[in-house]
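[[Encoded backbone]]
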Amino acid sequence: MSKTSLALHNLRGFAILNVLAFHSFIAYIASQPPAPIPFDNPDDWTAHPIVDAHRWLGFDLICAFEFLCLMQLMFLLSGLFVWPSLERKGGKTFLYDRLLRVGVPFVLGASLLMPLAYYAVYRETATDPSWSAFWSHWAALPFWPAGPMWFLWFLLVLNVAATALHWMAPQSGEFLARLSATGAARPGRLFLLLAALSALTYVPLARVFTPWQWVEFGPFGFQPALAPQYILYFIAGLALGAYGFDRGLLGPDGMLVRRWPYWLAGAAVAFVLWLAATGLIVTGSGAGIPGLQLAADLGFVLFAASACFGLAATFLRFAAVRLPILDGISENAYGIYLFHYLFVLWTQYALLGLALPAAAKGVIVFLVTLALSWTATAVMCCIPFGARLMRGKSRELARSA
């Protein structure tokens, strides 16, 4: 495995850990609603499923950091291997593989895992905690809450679109490769392009939709303000993969790696810009300051881009080696993502009555979720079909596992 591949492998594990941390900590942020939200109002409780009385402001900062850049990083990483896979497998085989490995887990996760996970949310405010009562309330909801499974259907749609592009315009791979070819020597150009396109799509939509607002159709949900950004980051990954991620922007000796401190510093400045502007807006203190909302929106898109560049540069510089923990997490990342929400919600529910500090509860939920999700993935991978879904492994590898 090349240095770049090792760094990206470790970065993938890091991203999954942050997904777990975000969902584990969000029950304890200071900006949570004052009380649990009735189960019959899913537009409100899907953002805050479990509401604990114990809060810690530090989790607000951590969750804000992750909310602003984590999914962009996930879509960037998801796009990296798409074009090489299309070239190697062909559109028909690639699409079949995506339907199996992304479509089937989405159906199983949304239809089986999410009702089991949200049963804990129902019990928090229920007068009748029985499963039959829960199911009657669940069936009466205006949509089918799918939780983190939304990422799978959205990713599948993007993979289908990439397959169609490869079939109708196979030469577009050369265009994407040329677009990213300047990244090795001038990563700033790619950064400015990505940030500018993100701002053009996000700023107008932010006038209509809040970043945490969702649109739901059955089990299919997405954030209208952020969806164009996710598409752009997937396309950016597509372009980097078309050129070859071992060279160009992600080359181990490129300018991105050499200037890793500047990218992290830029991310910190952009985060402070967003935090200060958003704080003034939320508290009402900045009512008379012109352009405050625009500053917050630009801080958002600049932070997302610089954080993705900074994390990639840092991992290429310091984590282009085998790291046992991150290696194991990355290898099981897909299964951990699929199972984690079930364990997050039930562990948060189990801790509701305990008089522990919020920080302690958040850490407990994170560690329990990581252990149980990893274990569930390992058990699934003992079954050949499970190994095929979770890791893309063959029957022989599943048996040896």
In short: Residues 394-401 have pLDDT under 50 and may be disordered. Strands lie at 215-217, 220-222. The CA atoms of residues 214 and 223 lie 5 Å apart.
